[in-house]
Amino acid sequence: MEPYSTETLLQHLGEEEPFPYGAVAPPIVQTSLFHTRSLRERYETPESMPYHYSRVSNPTLELAERKIAMLEHTEGALCFSAGMGAIASVLLTFTQAGDHVICVDTAYPPTRELLANWLPRYGVETTFVSGETLESFQEALRPNTRLIYLESPSSLVFRLQDLQAVAEWARPKGILTVCDNSWATPLFQNPHALGIDLVVHSASKYLAGHSDLVAGVAAGRRELLTPLQKTRELLGTTLEPFGAWLLIRGLRTLSVRMPRHQASGLRVAQWLAEQPMIAKVHHPGLPQHPQHALARNQMRGYGSLFSFETYPIHKEQAFAFTDTLKLFRFGPSWGGYESLLLGWNIDQPDESGRARWLFRVYIGLEDPEDLIRDLAQGIGHLEAE
Ligand SMILES: Cc1ncc(COP(=O)(O)O)c(C=O)c1O
Q: Are 378 and 240 in the same domain?
């Protein structure tokens, strides 16, 4: 179905044949195993049995995987029980004792924890780098460097890596490159098209899009997906059929949701940047972001997760501000329809008890003007005294 656009393919790809009973929605093939009526059939015509056990694969899962591979412009994709399931499976498949990994120091904290605290148990060491320049990777290179782990833009401060430059430098050295693309989504950034070997996602975020699913994705060339699928089978990190069905349902509206998230996120971020009590807004789509030019170069759009910093304030000021908010909820994760906020001090409080605070903001599908009104009523509490 190549001549069609992404929006059309999201609906039709893999759905050319009618589903049983003429159903429009795909069936949830909610089965653990797949059987034959005779043992003879299993021996004599094994090709008639494409599926055996849903920890290995399942038709509902494969429909989700085809759509994601189309979005990421990769040969294939695999779905996992969580974004961390995808990330852990990738790291365990492509490293072994004695190997060295280079990872961006602002990657999602559990990814960093896995690399810093768990993989050393199996003889894999990691160097964390800023990732803002190619030199930061070059300085960390060792003869045994096997994998470079990127997340662009990265968590909390939304720093970018030049994906094409890193991929071009790593490939001749035989170093595998992996990039977490959860923030931009494949609609706004395709790391594989820039030369990155494997793209991973927390599909719990924008891809599923409704805050009702925990899932992960890895996409890339078939030769890399074959050993990765084996790891998924052995670790049991496979997404189950109902999860895959929820993911397919979420993907149907991705191309409608993302432009809206982008516009609302930028609107709120711009408004925050104009407030005198806000010291800094970290959003790659704002011209004042130090890597805005790179963002424009390698992305086609922006997610709606960003952060802002205050000048030194008392903890009670942060709470007084957040107590006034009616439309924001306070919790982890992001990518659903609802706006969210989290915050913490990024300095040790000084002798007067003041510290700089960082607030992570996620803009959902509400009217951004309502969200700005909500923020405006209490933002005065953040004024440095
Ligand atoms: C950037 C990023 N990558 C990966 C993950 C992990 O995904 P999951 O929670 O689906 O395991 C998250 C989750 O918050 C994330 O924000």
A: no
Does the beta carbon of 345 lie inside 6 Å of ligand 1? no
pTM: 0.97
Contact 71, 186 (CB under 8 A): yes
Token pair recorded at residue 166: 């890193």
User: Do the domain assignments include residue 71?
Assistant: yes
For residue 277, the enclosing domain spans 254-382
Please work out whether the CB of residue 178 comes within 6 Å of at least one atom of ligand 1: no
Looking at every residue in the chain, the average pLDDT score rounds to 97
2 pLDDT exceeds 70?
no
- DSSP states along 232-284: HHHHT-BPPHHHHHHHHHHHTTHHHHHHHHHHHHHHHHHHHHT-TTEEEEE-T
Q: Does ligand 1 come within 6 angstroms of the Cβ of 216? A: yes
Answer yes or no: is 1 within a domain: no
Atom in ligand 1 nearest the alpha carbon of residue 111: 4
Q: Are 202 and 212 in contact (CB under 8 A)?
A: no
**Same domain? 154 vs 274:** no
pLDDT band at residue 42 under the 50/70/90 scheme:
confident
Q: Is residue 13 part of a domain?
A: yes
> In ligand 1, which atom is closest to the CA atom of 215?
10
The total number of structural domains in the chain stands at 2
CATH number at residue 373: 3.90.1150.10
| Claim to verify: residue 261 and residue 202 sit in the same structural domain | no
Q: 1 pLDDT exceeds 80?
A: no
Please enumerate in sequence order all residues whose Cβ is within 8 A of that of 289, keeping only pairs 6 or more positions apart, or say none: 158, 282, 283, 295
Which residue has better confidence, 3 or 125? 125
pLDDT tens per residue, range 323-350: 999 999 999 999 999 999 999 999 999 9
The string of pLDDT tens digits covering residues 359-377 is: 999 999 999 999 999 999 9
How many A from CA of 329 to the centre of ligand 1?
A: 18
Q: Which of 181, 175, 184, 203 is nearest to 83 (CA)?
A: 203
Q: Using the mean position of ligand 1's atoms as its centre, give its distance from the Cα of residue 274 in Å.
A: 30
